[in-house]
Write a structure and sequence with these properties.
103 residues, mainly alpha, 3 helices, 87% helix, 0% strand
Length: 103
C-alpha cells in the first residue's frame, strides 16, 4: 500500500506537490492551534472552577459555624423541658400525625 502512495506522490507535478504540501501544512497547523487552544481554555476553566470551589467551601464552613452558633444560642435562651412537658409534646405530635392528612 505504501509503495502505491509513494508512486502516486512521485507521479505528481511540482505544482501539485506544492499544493499538497500547503494543504498538509494547513491541516498540521490547524491541529496544533486547536490543541493549544484546548489546553489554554481548559486551564482557564479549571482555574475558574477551582476558585468557585474554594469560595463555596469557605461559605459552607461559615454557614456551618453560624448554624452551630445559632443552635447554641437557642439552647441557652430556652429552658429545658421537664419530663412531663416532654411527654405532653410527644403525645401532641402523635395526635397531629394521626389526625392531619398532610403530616
Amino acid at each position: 500500500m505504501s509503495s502505491r502512495v509513494f508512486t502516486w506522490a512521485r507521479s505528481l507535478s511540482q505544482e501539485q506537490r506544492r499544493v499538497w504540501k500547503i494543504g498538509a501544512g494547513v491541516v498540521v497547523l490547524g491541529t496544533a492551534f486547536k490543541s493549544l487552544y484546548f489546553v489554554f481554555s481548559r486551564g482557564l476553566l479549571v482555574d475558574d472552577r477551582d476558585e468557585i470551589h474554594r469560595k463555596a467551601t469557605a461559605h459552607l464552613k461559615e454557614a456551618a459555624q453560624f448554624a452551630e452558633f445559632a443552635h447554641n444560642d437557642r439552647e441557652s435562651r430556652v429552658p429545658k423541658l421537664t419530663p412531663e412537658q416532654d411527654e405532653q409534646l410527644r403525645n401532641y405530635l402523635v395526635f397531629v400525625a394521626e389526625n392531619s392528612p398532610l403530616v
